[in-house]
Each structure stands twice: as structure tokens, then as C-alpha cells.
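Hi V.,

You were right to ask for the full record rather than a summary. Here it is.
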Amino acid sequence: MADTRRGMREGKRLRSRRIRALLAGGLVFGVGATMTLAAWNDSEYGSATFTAGRFDIVGATDGTTFSSHPVGTPATLSFSTPFNAMAPGNTVYALFSVRTANPSVAGTLQLSVTSTAGTGLGTYLRYGVRSIAGTTCNGTTYSAGTAVVPDNSTMATGGTGTQAVAANGGTTVNYCIAVTLPATADNGAQGLTAIQTWQVAGTSS
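Predicted structure:
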């Protein structure tokens, strides 16, 4: 009887050791399963800085010396003689060159009339504007140019089209302006004056 009880106790201890061993093994297996989920990581990033450009146009009356002429301080155009003593049938010419400054983005130009003042000669005068290839503005180069304002327009007439200018002063638009006192002008035009102001408006593109 005693041997039987002793055998039963030893069997219980053996089973207990086996259960503990299995539990310990399960814990080890659990740790091993968790470790297999780990991974190395790496990333790549990209960034950029954005800056707004500028748009600025400048003009020159000689095709060479460019500067800004804001409202209220227009450039003085150099018309050919006899702009200050015109007689019926006379036509006088003047150059006005416009381009973008450096730096500046590209854009387009449009010529318009700001005002016609003076003592009334403006009502007699007629004019036209053409864009020309070079900076020599006279009857010959004017005739070969591209119309911006039609010939024989009143002094209040502006251009309807636009002219492209490249960025950073890359291209120049040379406006050749021809102003005529028609041969039909009567004696009432004598001694009168006209003060004409044009505007070249630029728009970035």
C-alpha cells in the first residue's frame, strides 16, 4: 500500500515537471515568434523652395539707354524735324524701344494713349505706329515695319494687338511712331500745340 502511494506521488511530481517544462518551452517559443516580426527601416525625403519672379519693363528713346519711366515721368521722345514747326504735309518720326528688365519674367506689351493735351493741334494731327527690326526710325524703316496703330489714326487711337518680349531683356520691341500734319490742315492749325502721352502696358506671361 505504501509503495502504491509513493508511486502515485512520484508520478504527480513527474507530470508537474513535464508541465513546467512545456510552459517554459511555450514562453521561449512566444519570444521567438515576437522577434521574427522585427524589421529594419529606412526612408527617403524630397523638398523644394519656391520663389516668385518679378516682371519689369524698361524703355529707351535711343534704343540703347534703358530705364524705368513710371506714370508722371514719361520719356521724352526725340521726333525728327520739323516736329516743333510742322507745316501741312509734314511727317515726323520717333523711336521708343521697350524690353523686360534683367531680371524679369517674359511678357507682352500693348501700346495705348494716355492723353492728348495742348492748345488744339492734336485735333488736326494723324499718326501711326509700327514695330521695326532695328533702332533707326524713319520713313523707310517705318514702311517696312509691322502695324501696331493703323496709319492716319486720330491721336486718341491706341494699339489693339500685343507684342511679345522675352525674359531678362532677351528681346526688344522697337516702336516707330509717325505723326503727320495732313496737307488738308487749314489756317486754324497755325501756332497750336499738342502734348501727346503714350503708354506701353506690360503683362507677364
